[in-house]
Design the sequence.
């Protein structure tokens, strides 16, 4: 028995905490994305790896630079910049010049996060904001889908990857339309199995639906993910596009095609669920998800672009404060 | 069918901390020996402090009245030992404040036998007499709140109590004092419940017990007499199952309206310890002079369930349990979710002290705080459906009036939100700051 009192702390209760922390939640998302990322690298080769690395480097360096500037300390430890860079990279076409990918990372963190006040204060998903910027600024390289690696060596790097900054990229790659483009402009349906396993054209992360779903299940098991958001998005897409298919099966894609094509799974599981930019309230998340699902189908079917996930999520991000305001739960006993 | 409905019944939200009761749940209650000095604060219950009726130097018997109620919301105080009044003055409490108290020096040669022997014939008592007796016995809520029990029993005209609900949830991790009482003194619990039920004119008694105490549920079931209309309701293990309003929601599927009391839905809720204290008084004439305390936590050398005379310094209780381990960093009075830390081990055990828990680095290390990532986990944890993240933000911005608009006063400081927050934001602490500021501004309007 010690006679002297230990120097007792006076921390407030509760002294117990559940185990998860914000950085660990971010890291879990990184782990969940690993299989799909590896698959993308396998299908597209070394060039894809470089694109991802450039996006991540842009994001992380920007985060680090502003943290230094604002003397905010080690914000890199929360892994959110790496995640933003990776998510951005997964939305890029594999043949993208590396400097563009890097610039995307810089914009994603700089305009997507830092100017809002850092983690937790941004209105829009940073990765998608970065992509929107790139799509507006570099429309041609951003919609040029290189073909799959095929028989080429893994280490083959497409010439377009190495284009110098601000030089006209020679579009000499063998390019073709993505499944959604084929569907939209030529009414040609890509087989579902190809979509599920990932050997189709598209951005890096668009390709392997099954692996993305697997990662989503991992996140759900780890309770890192608000399951309502992906479920409501997918349900809305299935129901809405199902109705359209009943009207005209040739012009409109089937629900299954809608789900496994384009960036829908990537967006629904990993981007729309970004806690910062999705509603706080449980009811709000349903509205948010359904809104995204409906917008995706609308943009895909009626808009001028084959792909609408990015704009759908960004639009609903903007609606989030409003949704939160009108979906506050009823207080107990009131 | 009935079971199915019961299974489904629960309150919404809440959290699932590990219950951590293994250390003490099978340890029988032990009595701690008498020590040399006892400090009995006059304000150890909620409400008006009581008034001393003794003089310095006066000799008192164990169980003798030493302070009388200072008003209606106030109770009597009795000497926990035979000895002499040493000092009447200000003593430091667990919150670090000095408050009036009576210090008693125990007589080392006294037998500490209780003077009065017989109980009280409670059958003929009217409700008013019963309420007066409970007040003079000094009985308060033993679950931790220390709200005078007789006030709960006094219902205004026009309200009828139909159900006596006994709170055996013990949802705070580590604590096992109520569990041991249910296991070791089921007859007294049931007799005490019968007294209260008959006096209040309630139709039935329901004892709500969390399912992690199967032994208590079984033993209580075995001891229920046919003429006692008592039901034991097993409840899902979830924090804060033992919060009055959550308990009522679980058992009766009724929401007590905000700002109202359980009696407004015809229920009277009492803790297991309170009911046993009532039994002690009416069956044996023993007023509230001791209570069951769980000593546990990773910093406690020998965890135990103890009968502790009120006013015993925490240091002496811990000494009896082999002291604190060297790595102890913090001592909490009460449970780990809602208890209060104490700065000194010289503070006394009070009527509301359900546990003395010692914590080490593992529990007190605070990971770096991150910004709120708006994940909504706190909203999904709050059993009152409040928006804790907004309170935290408003409190930091000192926008206390806005906090009030969003019903911060409905918060019971249960700690679920802080428990759930992955960014380790001290939400409850911020809420308390806001509430304190609001109360202060109410007291002195410009
Ligand atoms: S402490 Fe207050 S705000 Fe937090 S969960 Fe409990 S009641 Fe809700
Ligand atoms: S749990 Fe913490 S991080 Fe999540 S919304 Fe609440 S305060 Fe913000």
Sequence:
């Amino acid at each position: 028995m010690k006679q002297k009192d230990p120097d007792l702390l006076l921390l407030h209760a509760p002294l117990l905490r559940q185990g998860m922390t914000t950085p660990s939640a971010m890291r879990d998302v990184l782990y969940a994305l690993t299989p799909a990322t590896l698959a993308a690298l396998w299908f597209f080769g070394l060039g894809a790896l470089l694109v991802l690395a450039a996006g991540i480097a842009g994001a992380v360096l920007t985060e680090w630079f502003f943290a230094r500037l604002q003397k905010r300390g080690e914000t890199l430890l929360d892994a959110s910049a790496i995640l933003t860079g990776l998510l951005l990279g997964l939305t890029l076409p594999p043949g993208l010049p590396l400097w563009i990918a890097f610039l995307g990372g810089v914009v994603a963190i700089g305009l997507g996060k830092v100017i809002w006040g850092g983690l937790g204060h941004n209105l829009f998903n940073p990765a998608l904001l970065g992509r929107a910027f790139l799509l507006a600024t570099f429309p041609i390289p951003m919609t040029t889908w290189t073909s799959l690696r095929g028989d080429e060596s893994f280490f083959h790097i497409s010439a377009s990857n190495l284009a110098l900054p601000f030089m006209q990229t020679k579009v000499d790659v063998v390019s073709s339309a993505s499944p959604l483009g084929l569907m939209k402009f030529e009414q040609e349906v890509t087989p579902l199995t190809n979509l599920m396993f990932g050997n189709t054209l598209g951005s890096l992360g668009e390709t392997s639906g099954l692996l993305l779903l697997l990662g989503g299940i991992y996140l759900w098991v780890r309770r890192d993910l608000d399951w309502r958001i992906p479920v409501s998005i997918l349900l809305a897409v299935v129901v809405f596009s199902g109705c359209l298919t009943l009207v005209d099966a040739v012009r409109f894609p089937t629900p299954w095609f809608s789900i496994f094509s384009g960036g829908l799974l990537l967006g629904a599981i990993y981007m729309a669920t970004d806690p910062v930019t999705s509603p706080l309230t449980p009811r709000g998340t349903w509205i948010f998800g359904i809104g995204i699902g409906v917008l995706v189908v609308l943009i895909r079917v009626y808009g001028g672009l084959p792909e609408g996930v990015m704009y759908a999520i960004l639009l609903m991000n903007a609606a989030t404060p409003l949704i939160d305001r009108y979906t506050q739960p009823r207080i107990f006993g009131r | 069918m009935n079971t199915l409905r019961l299974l489904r019944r629960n309150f919404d939200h809440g959290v699932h901390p590990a219950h951590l009761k293994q250390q003490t749940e099978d340890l029988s209650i032990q009595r701690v020996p008498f020590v040399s000095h006892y400090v009995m604060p006059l304000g150890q219950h909620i409400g008006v402090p009581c008034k001393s009726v003794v003089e310095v130097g006066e000799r008192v018997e164990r169980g003798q009245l030493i302070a009388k109620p200072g008003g209606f919301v106030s109770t009597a105080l009795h000497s926990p030992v035979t000895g002499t009044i040493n000092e009447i003055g200000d003593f430091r409490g667990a919150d670090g404040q000095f408050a009036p108290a009576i210090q008693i020096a125990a007589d080392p040669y006294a037998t500490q036998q209780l003077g009065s022997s017989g109980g009280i014939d409670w059958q003929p008592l009217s409700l008013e007499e019963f309420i007066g007796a409970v007040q003079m016995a000094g009985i308060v809520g033993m679950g931790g709140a220390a709200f005078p029990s007789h006030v709960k029993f006094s219902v205004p005209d026009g309200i009828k109590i139909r159900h006596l609900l006994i709170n055996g949830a013990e949802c705070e991790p580590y604590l096992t004092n109520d569990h041991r009482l249910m296991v070791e003194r089921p007859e007294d619990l049931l007799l005490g419940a019968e007294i209260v039920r008959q006096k209040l004119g309630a139709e039935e008694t329901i004892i709500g017990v969390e399912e992690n105490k199967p032994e208590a549920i079984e033993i209580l079931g075995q001891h229920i007499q046919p003429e006692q209309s008592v039901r034991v309701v097993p409840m899902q293990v979830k924090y804060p199952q033992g919060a009055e309003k959550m308990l009522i929601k679980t058992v009766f599927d009724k929401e007590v309206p905000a700002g109202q009391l359980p009696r407004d839905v015809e229920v009277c809720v009492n803790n297991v310890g309170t009911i046993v204290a009532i039994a002690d008084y009416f069956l044996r004439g023993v007023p509230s002079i001791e209570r069951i305390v769980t000593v546990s936590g990773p910093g406690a050398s020998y965890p135990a369930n103890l009968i502790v005379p009120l006013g015993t310094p925490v240091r002496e209780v811990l000494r009896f349990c082999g002291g604190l381990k060297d790595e102890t960093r913090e001592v909490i009075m009460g449970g780990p979710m809602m208890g209060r830390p104490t700065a000194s081990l010289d503070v006394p055990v009070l009527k509301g002290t359900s546990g003395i828990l010692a914590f080490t680095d593992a529990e007190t290390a605070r990971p770096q705080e991150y910004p709120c990532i708006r994940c909504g986990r706190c909203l999904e944890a709050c059993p009152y459906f409040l928006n804790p993240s907004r309170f935290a933000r408003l409190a930091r911005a000192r926008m206390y009036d806005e906090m009030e608009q969003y019903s911060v006063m409905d918060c019971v400081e249960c700690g679920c939100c802080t428990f759930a927050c992955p960014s380790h934001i001290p939400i409850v602490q911020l809420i308390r700051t806001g509430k304190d500021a609001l109360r202060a501004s109410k007291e002195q309007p410009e």
Observations:
- Chain B touches chain A through 69 residues (CB under 8 Å).
- The pocket of iron/sulfur cluster (ligand 2) is lined by residues B 372-378, 388-389, 392, 420-423, 425, 427 (CB under 6 Å).
- Confidence is low (pLDDT under 50) at residues 1-5 of chain B.
